[in-house]
Amino acid sequence: MNKVFKLSLVMVLAMSVILAGCGSKSSSSNKSGIKIGMVTDVGGVNDKSFNQSAWEALEALNKDKGINIKYLQSKSDSDYNPNLNKFVKDNYDLTWGIGFSLGDAVKQVATENPNSKLAIIDSVVDAPNVQSVTFAENEGSFLVGVVAGMMTKTNKVGFIGGAESPVIKRFEVGFKAGVAAVNPNAEVKITYAGAFDKPDIGKSLAATLYNDGADIVFPAAGSTGNGVFNEATSRNKQGGSKVWVIGVDKDQSLEFGDDVTLTSMVKRVDEAVKKVTQEVIDGTFQGGKTEVLGLKQNGVGLPDTSKKNVPADVLAKVEEYKQKIISGEIKVPAE
Amino acid sequence: MNAATPVVELKQITKRFPGIVANDSISLQLHKGEIHALLGENGAGKSTLMNIVFGLYQPDEGSIEVNGKPVVIDSPNKAIELGIGMVHQHFKLVEPFTVTENIILGMEPKKGFNIDYKSAAEQVTKLSEQYGLQVNPHAKIQDISVGMQQRVEIIKTLYRGADILIFDEPTAVLTPQEIAELMDIMKRLVSEGKSIILITHKLKEIMQISDTVTIIRRGKVIDTVKTSETTPSDLAEKMVGRNVTFKVDKKAPTIGETVLKVSDVVSKNKDGISVLSGLSFEVRAGEILGIAGVDGNGQSELIEAITGLRKIDKGSIMMLGKEISNLPPRKITEQGVSHIPEDRHKHGLILDFTVSENLVLETYYKPPYNKGGFLNAEAINNNAQKLIEQFDVRTPSIETKARSLSGGNQQKAIIAREIDKNPELLIAAQPTRGLDVGAIEFVQKQLIAQRDQGKAVLLISFELDEIMNVSDRIAVIYEGKIVGEVLPEETNDQELGLMMAGSKKRVGDDRG
Amino acid sequence: MDKFRKIFTLDNYIVPVAAVIMGLFVGAIVMLVGGYDPILAYSSLFTQVFGDMYDFGEAIREMTPFILTGLAVAFAFRAGLFNIGADGQLLIGMTAATFVGIKFTGLPFYIHAPLAVIAGGLFGGLWAAIVGFLKAKRGINEVITSIMMNWVGFYGANYVVNHFLLVPGTQQSENIAPTASISIHFLTGIFGNARLHWGTLIALVAVVFFYVYLWKTKQGYEVRAVGLNPNAAGYAGINVGRNIIKTMFISGVFAGLAGAFQVLGVFQYQSVFASSPGYGFDGIAVALLGMNNPFGVLLAAILYGTLTYGSAGMSFGADVPPELVKIVIGAIIFFIAAQGIVRWVLGPFYGKRKKEKVL
Q1: In this structure, are B36 and B174 located in the same domain?
Q2: How far C230 CA lies from chain B's nearest CA (Å)?
């Protein structure tokens, strides 16, 4: 009797714990022998941002081409090396490092294993077997800056950066330039969260900005930005003046809804991942080069869903600036 | 009485704990209107037995009958339901609550959603009048005396409808006057039809108040006797298992020079209130000075001041002509001061240290125990081996934790440590508290032996008997001052009790 | 030797071992319900750690900070102090080591590296001693101050890196001078470039030091006395306040060394942290698991490191998401902390044995 009770206690305990622990995004099939690995940064694969974009791209390739894919999450900086090594030692055909913080680790592993193939997003690694992919975030941010500048009712918009790095600086500078181009009177408030994985900080920073009169906030801060969406949603629900968020990296209206997502600065991490991975599948992979994806290469931009909230005249203006940037008529500052 | 059914009958109760049999087939009958004393040394199994009656433990064998019906008491609530109440040695009261709030705690009379304080207070007053338990129902516990608090505990059990009251060492914390009052209360209770089990090891009280005595030794009932048909020495012998002398044998003191001289010491507590207010006395070599007083009149603070644990604001403390006030404790110890603390668990021992570690608690830093910063295990163990033999500390081994020793043996270990330091002054605070007759005898003999060797002994005790029997001179402390000095052969309990209560007058007329 | 055996009495280790087994068991059930193969998962976990030299080396690297932060927390526990601040002490120690490693150039390695290590330990110790000082002199609860000091340490470390050591345009400091590195180069070769360093050896020395200091020296006697009964220690003439400060200092030295080794042995640079690496908090779990005993802490750190490092193997080999590994670790800690449950489940076995003994 007692034993049965104890056993069921253990079961209940286990069940309650399961709710938290379900779900795996790893999948594999054996139609093709090609194996692609991916190492996330500390944001994790469900960051609703570039880690997730990259993984979704690999999942799409897995579906279409039948390649084997797998990811490893990094719990701390010290995991980068062993995680990359795990794939390299297992003879993966390509190992992705997602995010600039993996730069040193990718460099070291690539140097130690010259026959391996690696690729990195958002950082430039100078090694013959590494393909680096960076984005002209300043160009895309310029365009959402145009949207923000034209649509702000309070003449105040906010920007929340994850941490002061060259990549995030490109977001900030481009956004400011875009706002200034269409609305020189608008003020852009800049803050930094100091973290890419702290939605709570994002939420409180957003609250400060909105309280301060900003009606549009553009977070470039990984999952910290989720807190910004959270704050905006709850404000809109309580009534009061309407506030907006500009999504980042992905089309975040799909995640957080059209009520708060004005538009998104989409960084086509997925396109980049698909492109480089396809090169490996095709056997045309070339290491040692850096690909900068800007508006011209369709590496950054606004998603189609923008038209739900952004009026046509504003979108027309955006298109106009886009062409000017592509043609080189406007040079968007990067730092 | 013979025909009457006992209100409580314990039949062949046996309770085992790992390694020991705490109660071995104990049988006991409590009759209505009777005060039944349960006598035994510490660790004899009295508390275990009463915890079984009160539902805190379950017996392994045997049965309990209440009013002739077999019952299973599996919780204190069940015991209360059966009309059994317990007055614990350590009161279980909420200090900032009022008397009434404490009494009704857990059984509050309700008026809608609110507690009906008015009717509760009325009921408390009614109970206190019925049994002669005077209390102010609206006073806070923290503001009333210990004797008063005990009355609250008694009313608490009566409020819950107890007919059978268990008193666990009720006089341990009381002044002589309060003890006398408690005796009256107990008599009143039985006259109102209650029955009482009194747990104690004080023979005097048993002789004074109980009707029947059951003596327990090592978990077994040795005898049950009518109080009127026995004598204290008979009881003591049964309790300890050998002949006990009550007379403390001591020869006349050979008094030498002054060892400790305390002059006009003033010490204030955190709130700026003087806890020692101009206190003076001296202890000479070869004598035992007893400090009598009711708990809380500055005894603890006095000891702390002498041993360096409390800063004094005025006055001086001289040890063999050297000023020692406000020195660090270790410096004072090194002047030849030894100290048997009042609370052996809190201050005297590190319970989770082994016996051998405890025996070097004040000397570990000196050679031979300290060899270049490292402990010399051999020397420490030899010391322990020597002391436990010399002072008859009963312990399974020197590696046993002090926690698992009985109270008497813990105290012996402390005394061994303190005396082995060969001090000039031995301060003994409540050295026999909670000890049984055998251990008390041992402790008192050690104090006298120190005095006979020409050492100064300062004895602080709340037990008047001890003060009277052991001291060569008695100083009475009241509100942080010495209010009088008397010689034991020239005074009596009555006079001391009045002095302790703050009356400075010597009341010679009351004698006889 | 006698003492040594006593520390490892049956009762002492049976509970942690049972807790570990129960934790693994709960983890297995969770995996089963989630549709994963627990046997494959656990075997992948162990292959990940013991499978090849590289991984084994990296696993050792992973365990090292756990040993030291575990010792830090356990040491303070022995004096009755709850050092939640190991995290801050670690970061301060790390920063001090990084600073010395970068700025004190031109020294030969046999001076530079030890100097950087000592700086790390010293600053971690001093950082913790502040907490001890406040407790000893002002009676301020060490839990509160050490939590506060974690934040001060965290932002202080980032400030120093940002303003004095940063490589412009990045989120990390310059690399330390090669003379300050404590990597063991001949071993990294053998271990397939795993980042092995002398710090691991020092951590093992620290384990022995912990034991010898506490149980064999005069000062350790004082620390234990203060930890078990500060009142009696004070009565016996032991200076309680000084022992609290000293204990916190030593505790902080352990944590500071953990931080120093991460830079000098593993990364060779210090990042501007977005969030604390959390080794100090893991140290609490390790100390708890190791029952505040130095050798227990070592074993707990090995277990803890195996689980955290091996979690990648579970993801890799059995596709188990890393969250699940956290559940297993969490369950083990839970069972350790809730010893009552373990004893209750073990109850029937215990009872039987006890009775046999009595008979």
Answers
A1: yes
A2: 9
B369/C217 Cα distance (integer angstroms) = 10
Asked whether residue B362 falls in the same domain as residue B442, the answer is: no
Closest residue in C to B363 (Cα) is: C236
Mark whether B45 and B110 lie in a shared domain: yes
Residues B211 and B263 grouped into a single domain = no
* Domain-embedded: residue B468: yes
∠A38-A41-A43 over CA atoms, to 5°? 120
Domain residues for the domain of B135 are 8-240
- The answer to whether position B297 is within a domain reads yes
pLDDT tens track for A131-181? 999 999 999 999 999 999 999 999 999 999 988 888 899 999 999 999 999
What's the pLDDT tens digit per position in B89-136?
A: 778 888 888 888 888 887 777 777 777 888 888 888 888 888 888 888
Residue C321 is nearest to which of A24, A163, A164, comparing CB atoms? A24
B350–C233 C-beta distance less than 8 A? yes
Cβ distance B370 to C218 less than 8 Å, yes or no, reads yes
Q: Given an 8 Å threshold on Cβ–Cβ distance, is C275 in contact with A195?
A: yes
State pTM to two decimals.
0.77
Intra-chain end-to-end CA distance of chain B, in Å = 37
Cα angle, residue A130 at apex, residues A124 and A135 outer, rounded to 5°: 40
Give the pLDDT confidence of B304-333 residue by residue, as tens digits.
999 998 999 999 999 999 999 899 999 999
In a domain, B343, yes or no: no
Question: How far apart are the CA of B345 and the nearest CA of chain C, in angstroms?
Answer: 8
Cα distance between the two ends of chain C: 30
Pairing assessment for the beta strands B370-371 and B374-375 based on DSSP bridges = antiparallel
Taking the CA of residue C171 and the nearest CA in chain A, the distance in Å comes to 6
End-to-end alpha carbon distance in chain A: 71
Which chain C residues contact residue B428 at CB under 8 A? Answer: none
Q: Which of B187, B207, B240 is the last residue of a domain?
A: B240
Beta bridge partners of B64: B10, B71
Q: What is the ipTM of this complex?
A: 0.81
CATH superfamily membership of A137-267+303-327: Response regulator (3.40.50.2300)
Contacts of A4 in chain C (CB under 8 A): none
Per-residue pLDDT of chain C (359 residues; tens, 9 = 90+): 444 444 445 556 677 788 888 888 888 888 888 888 888 888 888 888 888 888 899 999 999 999 999 999 999 999 999 999 999 999 999 999 999 999 998 899 999 999 999 999 999 999 999 999 999 998 899 999 999 999 999 999 999 998 999 887 777 899 999 999 998 888 888 888 888 999 999 999 999 999 999 999 999 999 999 999 999 999 999 999 999 999 999 999 999 999 999 999 999 999 888 778 889 889 998 998 888 999 999 999 998 888 888 888 888 888 887 777 778 777 877 876 676 677 777 665 554 444 443 33
Provide the CB-side half-sphere exposure for A71 (13 A, CA): 29
Chains A and C touch (3+ CB pairs under 8 A): yes
Which residues in chain C are closer than 8 Å to A14, comparing Cβ atoms? 26, 29-30, 33
The residues spanned by each domain of chain A are 28-135+269-293, 137-267+303-327
CATH number, span A28-135+269-293: 3.40.50.2300
Do both B477 and B409 map to the same domain? Answer: no
C104 contact A CB<8A: no
> Is B398 found in the same domain as B284?
no
Rounded Cα gap, residues B30 and B163, in angstroms = 12
Residue B348 lies in a domain: no
CA distance linking residue C195 with residue B69, whole number of Å:
77
Q: How many domains does chain B fold into? A: 3
Burial A317-329 (b: 16+ CB within 10 A, else e): bbeebbebbeeee
Q: List, as ranges, residues 107-166 from C with C-beta within 8 Å of A.
A: 158
Break chain C into its structural domains and give their ranges: 65-306
